[in-house]
């Protein structure tokens, strides 16, 4: 089974702190994604990466950065956390299958609260 | 650009009722279509998928048929259970370099015993 793991299920930080959210996948997937999920807004793509050291901005990259030093690991960084970054953060990786469809596998999520 | 529209929730049903959650999409090519489910406190899990027109995806009693003529992928279940209470996301993906998936906003489903 594909496993996508995230470093924390729950995290509480203070405004201005630097926050690292880690995501690891064990299926040798090339593409990895970070989303945030908020009530009424669904999932919004923050950043994605299609290879080591490669990154692309998603729909809401402001206030975030990412790091992909190894294929299996994709980190989301909040340089200076703010209260409007309180949210559920979901990591995903994607496997592209030979018969032409792709499926994202999700981690369990990190619920971040910024005080 | 591509988009997914699904019915807003919450949807509240009694146990054993028939469920339909509507989903329509716009896409420039020939996307694959997905339904994901998120149980309380968990991440998203793939529920079912369809890769071409007229395909029917099914899992755990849920079904959805890829209708190209109406650009729809409605989720149905004949008899819901309390354990089906969750948030359901319709999504599409077109194979390209970044393999992004476009999600709908999700529909929260409450099943009453």
Account of the protein in words:
The complex is a heterodimer of chains A (115) and B (113). Chain A has 115 residues and is mainly β. Chain A has strands at residues 4-6, 10-13, 19-25, 31-38, 42-49, 56-57, 64-70, 73-78, 87-96, 102-106, 110-114. In chain A, the strands form 2 sheets. In chain A, strands 2, 4, 5, 6, 9, 10 and 11 form a 7-stranded mixed sheet that branches. A 4-stranded antiparallel sheet of chain A has the order 1-3-8-7, with no helix packed on it. The N and C termini of chain A lie far apart (37 Å). In chain A, 37% of the residues are buried. The model of chain A has no long low-confidence stretch (mean pLDDT 90). By secondary structure, chain B is mainly β. Helix content of chain B is 0%, strand content 50%. In chain B, the strands form 3 sheets. In chain B, strands 2, 5, 6, 10, 11 and 12 form a 6-stranded mixed sheet that branches. Chain B has a 4-stranded antiparallel sheet with strand order 3-9-8-7, with no helix packed on it. A two-stranded antiparallel ribbon of chain B has the order 1-4. In chain B, β5 (32-38) and β6 form a beta hairpin.
Order of helices and strands of chain B: EEEEEEEEEEEE
Q: What is the overall shape of chain A?
A: globular
- Figure out the total of helices of chain A: 0
User: Could you give a short account of the major beta sheet of chain B?
Assistant: 6 strands, mixed
Strand content of chain A: over 45%
Structural class of chain A: mainly beta
Q: Name the average pLDDT of chain B.
A: 91
Described by the principal axes of the CA atoms, the overall outline of chain B is: globular
SS elements, strand count of chain A: 11
Please provide the count of β strands of chain B: 12
Give the proportion of residues in helices of chain A.
under 10%
User: What integer is the average pLDDT of chain A?
Assistant: 90
Main sheet properties of chain A: 7 strands, mixed
For this structure, the quaternary state is heterodimer
The low-confidence runs of chain B, each spanning 5 or more residues with pLDDT under 50, are none
Percent range for helical residues of chain B? under 10%
Q: Which consecutive residue ranges of chain A, at least 5 long each, have pLDDT under 50?
A: none
Structural class of chain B: mainly beta
């Amino acid at each position: 089974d594909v496993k996508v793991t995230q470093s924390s299920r729950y995290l509480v930080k203070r405004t201005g702190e630097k926050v690292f959210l880690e995501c690891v996948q064990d299926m040798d997937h090339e593409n990895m994604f970070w989303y945030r999920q908020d009530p009424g807004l669904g999932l919004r793509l923050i950043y994605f990466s299609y290879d080591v050291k490669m990154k692309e901005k998603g729909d809401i990259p402001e206030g975030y950065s990412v790091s992909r030093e190894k294929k299996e690991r994709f980190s989301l960084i909040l340089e200076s956390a703010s209260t409007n970054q309180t949210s559920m953060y979901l990591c995903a990786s994607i496997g592209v299958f030979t018969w032409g469809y792709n499926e994202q596998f999700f981690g369990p999520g990190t619920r971040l609260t910024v005080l | 650009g591509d988009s997914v529209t699904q019915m807003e929730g919450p949807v509240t049903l009694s146990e054993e009722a028939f469920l339909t959650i509507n989903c329509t999409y716009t896409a420039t090519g020939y996307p694959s279509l997905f339904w994901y489910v998120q149980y309380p406190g968990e991440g998203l899990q793939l529920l079912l998928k369809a890769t071409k027109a007229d395909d029917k995806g099914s899992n755990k009693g849920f079904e959805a048929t890829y209708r190209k003529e109406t650009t729809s992928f409605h989720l149905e279940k004949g008899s819901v259970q309390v354990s089906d209470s969750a948030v359901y996301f319709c999504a599409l993906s077109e194979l390209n370099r970044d393999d992004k998936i476009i999600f709908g906003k999700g529909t929260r489903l409450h099943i009453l015993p």
